[in-house]
Amino acid sequence: MPEPTLPEPGPDETLDSIGTAGVRVLQRRTGYRFTLDAVLLAHFAATERVGESGRMLELGAGSGVVSFLLVKQFSLGPVDALELQPAVHARLMRAVVLNGCEARVTPLLGDLRRIRELVSGGQYAHVVSNPPFRLADAGVRSPDDERAVSKSEVACDAPSVVAAARYALMPGGGVSLVYPAARVAEVLGLLTQAKLHPTVLRFVHARVGAPATRFLVHALRDRDRGLAVRPPLIVHGEGPGGYSAEVAALMDPPLSEKP
């Protein structure tokens, strides 16, 4: 039998590779494009989970980087990948075929603020999200709708992300998030209020001695085990591609985006 025809990038799309397991994603040339945050989140979620094996949910999957890395590079999942924007969801569906993940990544189209209409509550062992970072009223909104929805809280905010995670998680399940360092108090407070107890916190720094730009947090539903603060994650150093050895080990080929 002839080999199946794999999806090809359209005229306004690029086909990009990331990670050590040959993950490939389709992205708009002029739209929102994934950043290093997605790679760091997938690694953090995979390494900080403790006994949280089972079905996973990604909230705001975008091009699918996190979901594909979880199943291909870290052998986790299966993953349900929820995405709000129809055009982005359509690219995600094509990328599932590109990555041979039809049995491991299931794209879902819908709004995480209406999570109760999309999935059954309490069924996921782990929820991950690299949500929009910028407050809706902060700065100038991008004229490109895809960029605006992906970067700013115009379609969902941090309370919505936390509420969706709480609903989706089984008791004892974990949620892993990445946010700007400036929002650490806000997000930790939201998690605690929802009885998603933070257990691991790690700050991301561009270079040694530089202020933190991001933080990664892992929290457990209804289980308070205390908070462990990991050593700083340094992005840039003397490793391949100008990255630190830790970050360079996650990527092949190197990613040009910076946090």
Describe the 3D structure.
With 259 residues, the chain is of the alpha/beta class. It is 26% helix and 26% strand. Strands 3, 4, 5, 6, 7, 8, 9, 10 and 11 form a 9-stranded mixed beta sheet that branches. A two-stranded antiparallel sheet has the order 1-2. Strand 4 (79-83), helix 3 and strand 5 form a beta-alpha-beta unit. The model is unreliable at 147-152 and 254-259 (pLDDT under 50).
What are the SSEs and their pairings?
Blueprint: E1 13-18, E2 23-28, H1 36-48, E3 56-59, H2 65-73, E4 79-83, H3 86-98, E5 105-109, E6 124-129, H4 145-151, H5 158-168, E7 169-180, H6 184-193, E8 196-205, E9 212-221, E10 228-229, E11 233-234, H7 245-248
Parallel strand pairs: 3-4, 3-6, 4-5, 6-7, 8-10, 8-11
Antiparallel strand pairs: 1-2, 7-9, 8-9
Helix pairs in contact: 1-2
